Amino acid sequence: MMLQLDFDGSDFIGIYGRICDKYGVFGSNVPDATIKEVEKNLGIEAIKTTIAYANIIGSMLAMNSNGMMVNNFINEKEKKKLEALGLNIGYTASNMNAAGNVILVNDKRALVHPKVPKLKDMEDVFGVEVVREDIGFRNVGMVFALTNKGVLCHPDLSDEKVKMIEELFGVKGSWGTVNHGMPFVGCGLICNSKGVVIGKRTTRIEMTRIQDALDF
Hints:
By secondary structure, this protein is an alpha/beta fold. 31% of the residues lie in helices and 28% in strands. It has one domain: 5-stranded Propeller (L-arginine/glycine Amidinotransferase, Chain A), CATH 3.75.10.10. The strands form five sheets. Strands 1-15-14 form a three-stranded mixed β-sheet, with helices on both faces. Strands 2-3-4 form a three-stranded mixed β-sheet, with helices on both faces. It is globular, with a radius of gyration of 15 Å. The model has no long low-confidence stretch (mean pLDDT 94).
């Protein structure tokens, strides 16, 4: 399933939302009708909220089917909304505000850059092994779009790095862009094993590459 939408006029889908196979979290600026469409087509239960009063959920939050990591500036009201999903919740250190930018995770493993501060409870939150590896980018959460079936990679990654990512997460993948040439694919889409939501500027050639890489 491929949906081509905008989130309140923005094609930066991956900045304002984050999903996994079961759940989704969206910024409070995303219209209810849009969220319902995503829920229906990608088979998730979703909430909308802010994190630290910001709508950039995709940057602030990293999530798989077991849990989520979020920055520790979250307020009590926001925390209660996230807790309603019933997932484990972990909190990053104050010098790591954008968990979604620097953590790449599915239901098999998680990846962070070696310079990202160690978080002792991350493996417990996600229920998976956390691997520290340099793939050439620190912001791994936006360099890739990852599911339990496939991975879409920044076009500048080498064959060697793509193969490493495939083996690490147990998926097949390929290179691509979104929104008419955006290489940081995690900014322009959200995805799970059932499908993907992409920005409206995404071309047909990009759609084909996205579909092949994410294997749906």
